[in-house]
Amino acid sequence: MKRTVAGAIVLAAAVAMTATACSSNSSSDKSSGGKSTLSTDGKGKTITVWLQSDAQKGWPAVVDQATQRFEAATGAKVSVQWQQWSNYTTKLDSTFAGTSGVPDVVELGNTQTASYIAGGAFTDLTSAKSQFENSSSWLQGLAESGTSSDGKLMAIPYYAGSRVVIYRKDLWDKAGVTTPPTSIAELNADLDKVKAANAGDSHFSAFYMPGKYWYAAMSFVYGAGGKIADKSGGKWSGQLSSAQAQQGLTQWQTLATKYSTGGATKDESDQDAIMAQGHVAAIAGNGWEVGTVTDAKTGNPKLASVLSTFPMPGTAAGQYTPSFLGGSDLAVPAKAPHAGLGAQWVKYFTDNTSQTALAKFAIPNTTSLLSVYEKQAQANQSTGEAAKNTWFVPNTPNWASVESNNILQNMLESIATGKSSVAAAAATADGQVASTLNAAG
User: Over the range 380-407, which residues count as b (16 or more CB within 10 Å of their CB) and which as e?
Assistant: First the structure.
């Protein structure tokens, strides 16, 4: 559920050239013009579905029931091939550039999707949108990631993860803090108490906030009314120097410098393991990270009874800081041999039946089922609330280069280490973001 782009998601030129030409491939379940209509004509056919191993480990029964309903309705068979996020985009690039072995359905992280949409790698599902249940109430961050710059539906929301505050209730209680804060000012006041109560521990972090944790930092930017970038007149401009964005960055800076110890030059990849060591009272993470912190093999199961969660509070009392909505989308490749059947399988896998079952494990793709998700556990209640107020990265294929060039990470590290002021670091980042997003493809 936590998605990052490990390297630049740059499609080979061949992908852009060959994928857009796929409408010449004939298929009994694909209409003309590269647009897919949902098909039930599957007798004697087998579709191939690429899903990440998250589902294999976490909710295989959800995959199985959708497949069984699909097979009964279409007469087709389904071959689910489990994938790993590591080097996944390299595999997609080489597959899409070829002429064989193209699957009928692929899963992608929602920050990856825009690059492939721009490269013409997916089938247009716009005409079939109304046939996907809850398409009018999809989570905004997922829906935007699967929509092209000209408004076409190119990928279907699958599931999401949303960040909350995961905290040691025992440490907070001992410091005299017995209820979650309702504003950032109250959060800081509570952290002052927690920090003071543990002043004898030189390794202690009242709130561990790594210096390169851009998902968390940008949540404060958006919560203060700012944004990373904006497009006007066909050109992108960085917006991190705005008063609102700098207010958010300053709020984040307080967590990263006043209440966090030892992580100024790090990202969040090992924060669960660090919290498990016992010197951290709070982190910002996906709700499922509670399980990672307390894992019997890699974490500290003794913390299971004392960890709790709450949504990150906002600037004003009663408001929440918006959370980055990470997750996955499902797309039908433009050169899929059975595009219509692939779209039909996606329909079953993302309908109310499947998403209700999935809500036991992850945030479903629609706001209409958040209450079902929230009933499962206390951590789900917090992440479900957080998922109602989310933000997403600028929806442009060049965004991947912003991530791979570590523009935001470098800005935040310079702030966390004291090498640059918030204003100077933001100004540098604005120039880099603009030049990257405006670069010719």
Answer: bbbbbbbbebbbbbbbbbbbbbbbeeeb
